[in-house]
Each structure stands twice: as structure tokens, then as C-alpha cells.
Amino acid sequence: MMSTHEKTYTTKANFMLHGGDYNPDQWLDRPDILADDIKLMQLSHTNTFSVGIFAWAALEPEEGVYNFEWLDKVIDDIYSIDGRVILATPSGARPAWMSQKYPEVLRVNGARVKQLHGGRHNHCFTSPVYREKTQKINRLLAERYGSHPALLMWHISNEYGGECHCDRCQGAFREYLKKKYNNDLKFLNDAWWGPFWSHTFTDWSQIESPSSIGESMVHGLNLDWRRFVTDQTIDFFENEIVPIKELTPDVPITTNFMADTHELIPFQALDYSKFAKHLDVISWDAYPAWHNDIESTADLAMRVGFIDDLYRCLKQQPFLLMESTPSMVNWHPVNKAKRPGMHLLSSIQMVAHGSDSILYFQWRKSRGSSEKFHGAVVDHDNSSDNRVFQDVAEVGKTLEKLSGVVGTNRPADVAILYDWESNWALNDAQGFGLKTKRYPQTLVQHYRAFWEKDIPVDVITKEQDFAAYKLLVIPMLYLVSEETISRLKSFVAGGGTLVTTYISGLVNEHDLTYLGGWHKNLQEIFGISPVETDTYYPEDKNTVSYQNRSYELKDYATIIKLNGATVEGTYKEDFYANTPAVTSHSYENGKAYYIGGRLEDQFHRDFYQEIINDLELQPAFSVKHEKGVSVQVRRAPESDYIFVMNFTEKKQPITIESLVKDLVTGEDVSGELILERYEVRILENKK
Ligand code: GLA
Ligand code: GLA
Asked: Which end of the chain has the lower number of beta carbons within 10 A, N or C?
């Protein structure tokens, strides 16, 4: 793990990037508008633009016929105002001529239906033609712009996602399986529990990807398919960057990650922990639905913070916010405008959690097609006077004062483990409550206990170093390999504190259950054995008594057999009334806690407070405040940068005990202050 006191520059820039997706290819017949863009860029205090993301048809209007002159001018014009460019490869969408001439580039869906041309993000990742075409155009871009002084970074494709089930992809999948299972079909059949429903394969060619018209019940197959889709996407990406690495080895590479669109949970379809290893910089596109009708502003802010902390920790370095909206999107069920103050607050929150940029989709609002009402910096009025433009300029002016923050990280003693594979397997599990598994949401429930107390958290993945933390929380870690179990054991033996819950440690990396009860290493660490898990109907409730207080339990209750652990809490009702619900156990130099049921937020607050006291965990900077205010810190060698954010609709009093400097006003502050609704203060504490 990197030292948290060194600065890590993710790009060559030592300033906060501000700007976003710029699509001048939609306006090539309007030189007046392109000229206005350059003027407006200066007025908006922006400095960095991602260009060429979907520009393939403008760059190669006919096969082998190229038109780069417009892009030359755009990049030169941006550089003329001292702007920088994040140059995209155009593979996120392709020209119609290509689909027409080479139908193999089109995707085939799970039901084996070949798709027509249209939309975007719908190419086959295996197609040799598509791979050759992307390499060719990428080589030309790298040759032409690789040494342009405006070039800051590469933006490879756009939001990789989806999957193709064409014959070529089936072939690639079978090759992947042969390699994985040492060319041994018995090994595969064993791993996939072949004899079940006569699903034993006798030839590799019988194997097909999961399908709604074929196989969907073989969990080992489903899991391997998800792994293959991640690997094949990365393989396609690696093919894209061959000429880029060759010609511009010093220019960092990113691709924009996503969150799951509906609920704002980490993106589900690709294992980003694997993808991250192939990138120089993590970036993501964040579109929280502020002011929605189901949760408080603070609750949504907390969920954004969770994803930030996960994506930042993929490389343990600052990340970039690659896309966000200055106002609204066009694809939420209701596309509400950000209220005054929210744009600055929500932008600065990203910086507080580790972003070195605020970038938007998009610079100028489209005139036609599906994104013509998606928020943008420049609206159809082409004006710098409106509220949204002024909000953007305010963010720009603020970021100009934060160059000291660039490259700084966020030290944490607490880690929560997020695992893509475990989530896939758990979602596949036919059992428990089909709608109440909610793995990412459960992690956020645990995260809340720390977020509310301003205790920094790293959200890590399983290959990272556990020993860097005092406390490791692994809720609902359903799939866990022998190897990870051994590492958890060493972590606790070495003095770490480990917390797990119901539905953890049930299957191995093939999604096969462990036999003979809970894994013996887990039994040793936790001093218990979970023997039965009861699943509740939505109306069912139980109560857990913990430290003489009562807490509501829903969804799951695991019956626990003690084997050396201390009982910390008990169930109050049902046939397991008065049996252990929460346990603790000292193992060698560390301690391990098991939480048997899904308990209300107040339980987590109280439960983790005990651990916080025991381990003397501290906020990175102490500010007294009420609920809904969040304090996050980024640490530089000489200074702490403190972000105090009011995610409520009310004025909030806060108290700062030491003397710090307000980075925006330049004034010294201490003592009691009032934060207005949605106000953020950015403070510097010099060491
Ligand atoms: C049916 C089938 C069994 C089994 C059960 C599960 O009864 O015949 O093979 O799948 O459902 O409840
Ligand atoms: C994604 C895409 C962008 C744009 C936005 C709209 O993030 O990458 O091209 O469509 O969504 O919110």
C-alpha cells in the first residue's frame, strides 16, 4: 500500500481539471458556434476537454478516407487558451458503413439474436475486423496528436459494458475455459457440478454461454461467463491501446467507469478490480439523482461517497470524475434540476473523496437526438448569463484555489471489502430472499456507521493488503476462496479486527458450497459455526438484544453454534429466542465479530462505536456538527485539506477547535460557524 503522505499525480497536470466531454463534431457546419465555445470556455473557468469520444464517423467518413483537419483545429484552439485535451478513441460508437460492410462487428445477444446497427456500445469484443479497425484509427490518432502539447491523457473508448454471444465469442469462451481448466473436461464438470440435471459435458463444443433460450441454471458456468466477459472486454481494451502505448508511452491511460444506473451502486457487469490493473488512472461517471423523493440528501451523499471510496481504492490514488452533470440528466425517471448550492456541493464532495477533476457531460447541449435536454455547461441559449453556466464558473473558480489538493490521498484505518465475484454468485443463488440479498446496499449500511462519524474508510477489493488496516469489515461475503480465508486468518492473527455477517463464507471460487460445516479456518477465527439461516418475509421482524438495548432485525437471522466465542447479543423471538445473534472472539492477537442478522442502522452505530473506542479510531479532522454534515479530509505532506459539507436543507452550526484557513476566502477561521443549506467550506490545516 502506498504511503499516504506522498503526492500521487494521476495525470501530468498539477491543477484540478475542470471541463468535460466536448463534441464539436456535432457542430462542424457552425464555425460561429465553435468560436463561441472557445470564448465560453474561458468565461466558465474550465481547462480540460475530452474530445473525439463518438467521433468516428467524422474522422473516417468512408472506409480509409480520413478527415482530421477539424480535430486539429479544435485541439489547437483549446491549446491557444491554455486548455488541455483528454483524447478519446472512438470505439464506443462506429460509423454505419462499417456495420454494413462487416456485419461481424454487430453484437449477438443472449437469445442469439444478431443486433442491427444503431445506438452505441454494441460491438462484438472478439471481432477481428473491429479490433483491426480500432487499432488503425487509434494509431492514426496517436501518430497525429501524440506529441501535441495539449494532450493530457487518453480516454479509451467510453463506458465499456455489455456482452456478445456470437459464434466467435463462443469460441473465445471455450478457449478461455480450456485454459482455465487445463484442457480437462472432468475438471470443468466437477467445478460446475455437472451431473446435476445431466449437465455433464462430453465435448468442449457443447458448451454455450448462458442464455434465456438455453442454460442459465449452472452457477459455475454463469460465474465463468461473467469472468470471461470482464477478461474479453479487457482484452479488447488491450488491443485498442497497442499503438497508443507504442507511440505515447508517457501519456496516461484511463477509461470511464460507471455506477449502476438505477440505484447508484457500483457497476455490476464488469469486475473493475481486474480492469483497474490495466489502467493508469481510474475515472468514473457519477450521476446521482439529487433531491429525489425516496431518500434524504445526506443518504444519497453517503452512497456517492461509498462508490468514490471504492473506485479510489482500486488504485489507491486520486481518481478523476470524468462525467457529471451541471444540472440534470435525461435518463432518470424524473430529471430534476440541481437546487442552488448543490452543484458546488456535489462537485466538491467528489474532490473531498479523492477526485482531481470535475468534468461534465457535456460541454454544449446537443440540438437533436436523445440528449438534447441533458444538462450541459452551454445551453441552447448560447449564453454565459444563466444559472447553470454561472454555477459551473463558480466551481471553476473554487477549483483554481485547490491546486494543493491535487495528488493527495486519504489515509484510512478502516476497510470494507467489496467483491464483484461474490456479488455475482450471491445474485445467482436461488435461495434466501430473492429480492432481499442486496449486497452493495448492505455494505453501505456498514459504511454509514463510519461516514456519519467522519471516520475515513477505504472500500477495498480482496487482492489488496488487509494488514494496512486496523479494522476490516466483510459483510455478506458469500463467495470466498480458501486462499482469501487464509489471508483473513493471518490478518486477525496479526492483530486485526474483523467483522462479518450472515450469508458469509458459504461457497468457494467455483460457487460450490463448503462441505462439513463452515470452513474450519473461519470457525477458528470467529469461534462459532453458523448452522442455519432463517429468511424473513418483508413484514416479518425479530428483535436483537445487544448491551441491554433492543434493535430491530429484518430479512435474515442466522442461528449460531458457539465454539469459544463470547455472546454479545441474542435473538428475542422465534424458536431461536435467547440464542446468540452477535458474537465476538479473540483469536491470537486480533478479534473477530459475527453479526447473525440484518439489523437496523442504530445497531451499526452502537456496535461500531464500541470498536471505534477499542481501536481508538479517529476522524481525520475533528469538527463538531449535527447529522447530515460530512467532514472529509485529503492529506498532503504539509497540510490537511478539510471539506465540511452540509447535505441538509437547513442551516447547520459547526465547531472547529483549531485555527484553520478557509481556502476560498483566505480568512482564518475557528470556533462556531454556521453552514447555510448545502454550503461547503474548504479549509486548510497547516502542520
Ligand atoms: C420439482 C422438481 C425437482 C426439484 C424441485 C425443487 O419438484 O421435480 O427436481 O427441482 O422441484 O423444489
Ligand atoms: C454516459 C455517457 C455519455 C452520456 C451520459 C449521459 O455517461 O458516457 O456519453 O450519454 O451518460 O448522462
From this structure: C
Identify the active-site residue in 60, 163, 323, 421.
323
CA distances for 146 relative to 72, 149, 283, angstroms:
12, 9, 21
- What is the distance between the alpha carbons of residues 323 and 307, in angstroms, rounded to a whole number? 14
pLDDT at residue 5, as a whole number: 62
Distance, first Cα to last Cα, the chain: 23
Distance 426 CA to ligand 1 centre (A): 21
Tell me, in angstroms, the distance from the centre of ligand 1 to residue 226's CA. Answer: 27
Using the atom order of ligand 2, give the atom closest to the CA of residue 256. Answer: 8
Task: Spell out a b/e string for 437-447, using b for 16 or more CB atoms within 10 Å of the CB, else e.
Answer: bbbbebbbbbb
Reply yes or no on whether the pLDDT at 3 is more than 70: no
What is the Cα–Cα distance from 30 to 339, expressed in whole angstroms?
33
Give burial (CB, 10 Å; 0-12/13-18/19+) of 521.
middle
Does residue 259 sit in helix, strand or coil? strand
Nearest to 271 by CA among 315, 229, 313, 305: 229
Peptide bond into 632 cis (omega under 30): no
- pLDDT tens readout for residues 606-647: 999 999 999 999 999 999 999 999 999 999 999 999 999 999
Q: Check if 539 is active-site.
A: no
Ligand 2 pocket mutation pick from 26, 159, 327, 330 by most atoms within 8 angstroms of CB: 159
Task: Kindly list the protein residues whose Cβ atom lies closer than 6 A to any atom of ligand 2.
Answer: 158-159, 285, 287, 323, 329, 361, 371, 374
Ligand nearest to the CA of 196: 1
Query: pTM of the entire structure?
Result: 0.98
682/633 Cα distance (integer angstroms): 10
Distance 190 CA to ligand 1 centre (A): 22
Model confidence over 646-684: pLDDT tens digits?
999 999 999 999 999 999 999 999 999 999 999 999 999
- Of ligand 2's listed atoms, the one at least distance from the Cα of 159 is 8
438 and 394 Cβ atoms separated by less than 8 Å: no
Query: What is the tens place of the pLDDT at every residue in 423-469?
Result: 999 999 999 999 999 999 999 999 999 999 999 999 999 999 999 99
Dihedral over alpha carbons 25, 29, 35, 37 (to 10 degrees): -40
For residue 442, the model assigns a pLDDT of 98
Q: Is the dihedral of CA 654, 659, 664, 667 positive or negative?
A: positive
C-alpha cell at 268: 455490476
Q: Indicate the top mutation candidate among 22, 155, 323 to test ligand 2's pocket, ranked by most ligand atoms within 8 A of CB.
A: 323
Residue whose CA lies nearest to ligand 2 atom number 3:
361
Task: Judge whether residue 363 has pLDDT over 60.
Answer: yes
Q: Annotated catalytic, 323? A: yes
Determine the 3-state secondary structure of 615 from DSSP.
Answer: helix
- Residue 103, Ramachandran bin (φ over 0: left; ψ between -120 and 50: alpha; else beta): alpha
Measured from the CA of 331, which atom of ligand 2 is nearest?
A: 12
Mean predicted lDDT score pLDDT of the chain: 97
Asked if 355 and 321 count as a contact pair (C-beta separation under 8 A), the reply is yes
Q: What is the CA radius of gyration of the chain?
A: 26
Count other C-beta atoms under 10 Å from residue 404's C-beta. Answer: 16
**Distance between Cα 494 and ligand 2 center (Å):** 45
Count of C-beta atoms within a 10 Å radius of residue 88 = 23
CA distance 118 to 99: 9
| Ligand 2 center to 21 CA (angstroms) | 9
For 101, residues 6+ apart whose C-beta sits below 8 A from its C-beta are: 63
Pairing verdict, β 542-546 and 566-571: antiparallel
User: Which of 267, 188, 206, 262 minimizes the C-alpha distance to 233?
Assistant: 267
pLDDT level of residue 178 (50, 70, 90 thresholds): very high
